[in-house]
Amino acid sequence: MRAAVVRNFNEDLSIEMVEDPTCPANGVVLEVAACGVCRSDYHGWVGKHPKVENGSILGHEYCGTVVEAGPQAKYKVGDRLIAPFILACGSCPTCHTGASNACEHSVVPGFGAPGAYAEYVGAPFDHNLVYLPEGMSPAIAAGLGCRVTTAWHALTDRANVRAGEWVAVHGTGGIGLATLLLAKMLGARVVVVDIVEEKLNHARQLGADAAVNAMETDAAAAIRDITGGGAHVSIEALGIEATTNASVECLATLGRHVHVGMPAGDGQMQINMRAIYAKQLAFFGTRGMPSWKYPSLLGMIERGAVDIRPMVAREIQLSGASAELRAMHGPTSPGTAVITDFTQ
């Protein structure tokens, strides 16, 4: 099969013919219809993820059609499926509590297992996968695997956002845009933060109540002023020290910080603990979404409760993934890119 392979960090992915994936006994092989290009992939591409090395195939936001099913698989050849990026075992104590996104035995394609920057991808533990709705395009579906699902779980589970609350969103990439759209659907008021005016304007067009350019002002102070004392919930969607502290510092007393952005490297940061202590803040970490929440999320999208189509800005070829990753060295343009052509 054709795949985009990491050969040297920070250099173009190598488009190669590699072995087709072996079908897992408890899973399936999918012919990939679409795969998102995510900032988490960028961390691996620059050498800042411990499970990405020479020969790795990135790609964890994907959907496709089953071309081979193992003897213990739930699904069959021909099924069109969406895959969450965390493939949980389903049998450990953590999975039994319903928190499958925290499974210690999970498999994450693209990080320690071959990913979906390829014509085919293997998916073990296929009980995590769900059917692709007939009316949903593969490009939109691919984005659900990380951005929308992560944002939905952050808002509804970790933060428990309620109508009328102020939600601050630090970073308007894929996670940030999904958070904006979903928070507005929940009835929250949203203020977004970025350093690219084009992205802030894009967020305003998608319903943001306010926007702050962190290059021009103290973002935390501006949010406290806009919200009349601080946000109730703040979502950090980049994974860097500056935005983490801005997220903590922008909150009102008893506010909730949710850390979504994947920290690069060793993950060490200096955090304003005095703000957390003095304002008695809650500090949550989150990663992905339990697979059992997929049907309700998909149903909501199918009913038109929220329109996530504005998130996908570009459909690209497999060979175009390198340019998208390279662009993440600096400020990026609005919207996200999805690979939908795996022929070149």
From TrEMBL:
Keywords: Metal-binding, Oxidoreductase, Zinc. It holds the Pfam family ADH_N. The keyword Ribosomal protein does not apply. Its EC number is 1.1.1.1. One of its GO terms (molecular function) is alcohol dehydrogenase (NAD+) activity. This is Alcohol dehydrogenase. It comes from Roseovarius aestuarii. Its cofactor is Zn(2+). Residues 8-339 form the Enoyl reductase (ER) domain. PROSITE patterns: ADH_ZINC. Belongs to the zinc-containing alcohol dehydrogenase family.
